[in-house]
């Protein structure tokens, strides 16, 4: 059975390379990573929280993409607690130690016990990756 994450990434890279052909002949791996994360994050600014959560789920699929991680960190500033929790959970799955400073800073201002506990769990998990 094919890996759905790998298939999604392959499809995105193909689409992005086809889109960029009129401008340049070849898209570097770095440009492809940035492009797929930007495309995935396009709904993070949507008015509807459900759309923003879908964008986070799409970013999570891009695990290992440093640009996806950046977009997830930016979602910590969302006004909807469900969106923030989803971003924290996604960081717990695909985040790297690069997220730790922002997560530590964010934790200082969180009032929700449930969210604080989840952030602390994610921090502990990411610190083990060191």
Write out the CATH superfamily name. Leucine-rich Repeat Variant
- State the secondary-structure class: mainly alpha
Instruction: Describe the oligomeric state of these chains in a short phrase.
Output: single chain
Low-pLDDT stretches are: none
Distance between the termini: 33 Å
- Report the top-level CATH class: Mainly Alpha
CATH architecture, by name, is Alpha Horseshoe
Beta strands, count: 0
Biggest pleated sheet: none
The succession of helices and strands, N to C, reads HHHHHHH
Task: Describe it.
The protein has 130 residues and is mostly helical. It has one domain: Leucine-rich Repeat Variant (Alpha Horseshoe). Helix content is 69%, strand content 0%. The chain contains seven helices and no strands. The longest helix is centred in the first third of the chain and has 17 residues, at 4-20. The radius of gyration is 16 Å and the shape is globular. The mean pLDDT is 86.
Task: Name a few traits of the molecule.
single chain; 130 residues; mainly alpha; Leucine-rich Repeat Variant
Give the helices and strands, then pairings.
Layout (H helix, E strand, L loop, with lengths): L3 H17 L8 H12 L8 H13 L4 H9 L6 H14 L5 H9 L4 H16 L2
Helix pairs in contact: 1-2, 2-4, 3-5, 5-7, 6-7
